[in-house]
Amino acid sequence: MTGPAGDGVDILPAAGIRLVETALPELSRPHRAAMDQAWAESVRANPALFDGPVAALVAVERDGTDGLVLSWARASYRYRALRHVPGSPALSSLFVSVLQPTDDGRVLVGRMAPSTSAPGRWQLPGGTVEPPDPDGELDLAALRAHAARELAEETGSATPADALAPWLTTRGARGSVGVAFTAPPRPARELYDGYAELVRTESARGAEPEFDRVELIGSLSDLDGLEGPVVDYLRPVVRHHRGTGNRAAGHARSVAAERPDHAGA
């Protein structure tokens, strides 16, 4: 298991993942009341938040040399508020992300829209994992399918789930674990055009895309040039991408020069 990659984030294996459903930790009455109060305050600050179902991460364990066992429980978004409740059971987020490269090795990132839970934050396409139906199974194939849906819904890039390859897993300072997949490279213009079409489609039906802007980055300096906060795993992931032979041959040329005017909302 790889150690810290900097920025308080660990890089872990991805291919040998087992997901095991477990019971949600019991909450005392004071902890539940504090959680509900913290959630209510979050909703008042951002009315777009909803208490939908999530697969909460309960524990992470090694499975042999390169494998991981992720124990998860059925919960809802309000359980995230427990991180602000002293002494409460530890529950972390489980999410997927997609590294979508261009032909020249750059990577697509998006800025979260104002109505999302992290407005203005730059990250890879992806999202929190939802629990399966009672007769379904949460496994690596389900994570892959979820990652493909998130990529399409957030960027307009329709990549089949079986074209995504498990790449790596990150664990943040708060314990949140993200399983990252890589997508086949696409031309930069195709990615920008796909996002622009998504914006047009969503706007026509009165909806707001989850990303209000997308960019292509090919280096840590490109990442530093983004305006706004950046999710904790993004710098280690970009560093790892750069260090595994994926060189951005053309990142020095102006992104703005090749991006259509409709690449940002």
UniProtKB/TrEMBL annotation:
PROSITE patterns xrefs: NUDIX (PS51462)
InterPro entries for this protein: NUDIX_hydrolase-like_dom_sf (IPR015797), NUDIX_hydrolase_dom (IPR000086)
Pfam family, one: NUDIX
Biased composition (Basic and acidic residues): 256-265
Domain of life of the native organism: Bacteria
Alphabetized SUPFAM superfamilies for the sequence: Nudix
Region (Disordered): 243-265
Span of domain Nudix hydrolase: 89-221
Chain ranges passing through the membrane: none
Protein name listed in UniProt: NUDIX domain-containing protein
Gene source species: Streptomyces camelliae
Phylogenetic classification of the source organism: Bacteria, Bacillati, Actinomycetota, Actinomycetes, Kitasatosporales
